[in-house]
Amino acid sequence: MANSHKVKIAARLRPRLKNELDDEGVRIVRSDDGPSCICVTNPRDASQVFRFPFTSCYDHNSTQEDIFSTDVQPLIDVVYSGVTVTIFAYGVTSSGKTHTMQGTKAEPGVIPRVVRALFDRKLSLEQEREQESISISASYMEIYKDEVYDLLVARDNAPKLPVRENDAGQVFVANLSSVSIESAAEFGHLFSIANKQRSVGATLLNRASSRSHAMVTLDVKMTNLQENRVLTGKINLVDLAGSENNKLTGNDPSRMQESSAINKSLSVLGQVVHALNQNASRIPYRNSKLTRILQDALGGNSVGLLICNLAPGLKFRQDTLNTLNFAVRTKNVENKPVVNERDNRPAPKPHFAAIQAPAPAGKPAALPAPIVAGPSSRPSIIPAPRSGGSLPGMPSRVPRGSAAGGSGSAPYPGASKRRESGIGIVQSHRNSLNTQLSEKEIDERISKAVELEVARRLEAQERERLEEEERRARERAESESRQSEQPAIPSGLLTPLLKRHQDLDNELRRRLQDLEKKYERGNSEVSLKDAMSPVSRKKTGRAYVALARSHSEKGDLQVALDLYRKAETYVPDNVKLKERIIEIEWAVKQGKPFQPSPKKPRKAKSKKRKGAASKAKDGASHSLPESSAAIRADDTEDDDVVENLLGGDAAQVAGFGVEVTNSPTRRGAALDEDSDDCMTPRKPRKGKRRAAESDDDEWQPSAPSKKGKGASGVAG
Ligand SMILES: Nc1ncnc2c1ncn2[C@@H]1O[C@H](COP(=O)(O)OP(=O)(O)OP(=O)(O)O)[C@@H](O)[C@H]1O
């Protein structure tokens, strides 16, 4: 079993730049008896200081050589032991990531130093181990707006590269070119050409701000000619784009797009680290290309070093705290480094080889048995490397294997030494290719491989199902939070009102339909109208107006218009109704909402109305909160409009269900009153009510009742 290895953290504070203020926002405090600390004052309470202890803290005076010799140089041997190493620089924009990784001609950074060290080591190893041949190849990619591009190919020709996963679960960038390099100088030349292609732009914080994440990968292949085995070490050197605070960067819209892609991928990186710390069942590697590609470095099979770059000063204090918090969480991420070794002995028996057909170049092996990286005549996840050098800047495209490391196989001679250094070795599976295998053994191996494949597929299905569930839960939570953001109306307050509206609407519609059925012989409004008494015509007209009104309130202007027009056939002389039709026609044509014209305040109210209003006030409204009182006030206003339009009293119009709020009791009574048939002439009523009925025989827009008893106006 492989031993675990925690990601190592180094923090580096860059010096102040010319225009930056001299303050003590971030400091490094050294201690003789413990690790050094990065100290940051709490932005909310200056008396509090946050301390972040790391084994490697570099202050503003630190040099590129300091970092390289202390934290990077020891990893060169790890690469030469066949393990994948990933070093990534993380920090806010302008904190010095590119300076640390690339550096300048005068102060070369981690990348050129690593290349030099690899070649130095190669030389000494080749002298030590005569039977071993070592080759180094490089690839260079950038992730720009969540798309992967090959930086070793001219940008015009560079397509977006897909990120894939082989059957062994190893992530790789398909079709990424890999160039064999013979010396550090050759790499330097290649690197400087490729860097010109990297997406860089100016922001207020950095004149040459990286707009992409960039990753150099150096593959070291050690072929043991005597033992016919290949060991592949690898080092990924990642210069991440900086997290950006757009208030400080002053980004324009195109920069904002880049910035949002950068921030999103970094946020997914944070989520991955968080999930790993939580031992979550699902790690969201797939949520961004960056995390997919770095999968091996975070919770995978490589040795990791995170260099946290910090910008000094209070201006960056919050970003510094964010970076340090990320570092603290990353510190706990455990990897299980493995040695990538490949048995390179002769091909297996023909019948076995036929079953385990070699995968075509560039494609993963068919069976999921543990696979190790390296060139081989056997099935391999990594195709044979392109031989020979290439013209810097114009490399030919060669499909390359995983950007991440592979899993190991047979113990490499010296495995015990590596075990001591905390690097695990995956058990050997090379016997699967042994020509001495019996038929039975081969069958067993095949069934095991099939079982593994089935298990893998089931796991993939399960993963998809969980992802789907998570997506649904997220959507549910979002919609719930959207709902909860809406202003709260006391629960249950609107329900009776809405229900009543609905009931009355339906009732009104039903009655109108009944009416039409009963009277409309030739399906003509004119003939129906002609069959009615003047009072019935008016009442039907009101009913249509009421219905129209409720539709116009809902915004169904076309329906409202049709209903107003119907009403007009019953009360053709009503001027207000005509005006209303014109207004709504205009609104429909213009596609604008309909705003009823403001109404003059009424002066006198009938006693009955006042009584009803005060009852309502004393009763329902009294106990209701402000919002409900507002609803009632609005409704009263609506009724008045109808009243105006029809020249009658709202309370009377309520006879057909329009008046919905002021007095539910009255409304119910009104409906009951008319429930048999509102068009059937009724027995004359006594007293004032009957007198009012006779008033109604003439349509008087907004005319107050002659007796000042509008509320008892038209009852039909
Ligand atoms: N240790 C250092 N010594 C001297 N100058 C430095 C150091 N670190 C960074 N700088 C300078 O600070 C500026 C910003 O650095 P750099 O471009 O490396 O930041 P970055 O983190 O890569 O930014 P971005 O994320 O925007 O690409 C550069 O001018 C660089 O030369």
Automatic annotation (TrEMBL):
GO terms for cellular component: microtubule; microtubule associated complex. Residues 599-612 have a biased composition (Basic residues). SMART domains: KISc. Residues 366-418, 463-497, 592-716 are annotated as: Disordered. ATP binds at residues 91-98. One of its GO terms (molecular function) is ATP binding. Keywords: ATP-binding, Microtubule, Motor protein, Nucleotide-binding, TPR repeat. Residues 366-388 have a biased composition (Low complexity). TPR repeats lie at residues 541-574. GO terms for biological process: microtubule-based movement; mitotic spindle organization; spindle elongation. Residues 6-333 form the Kinesin motor domain. Residues 463-483 have a biased composition (Basic and acidic residues). It holds the Pfam family Kinesin. Gene3D superfamilies: Kinesin motor domain. Belongs to the TRAFAC class myosin-kinesin ATPase superfamily. Kinesin family. This is Kinesin-like protein. The lineage of its organism: Eukaryota, Fungi, Dikarya, Basidiomycota, Agaricomycotina.
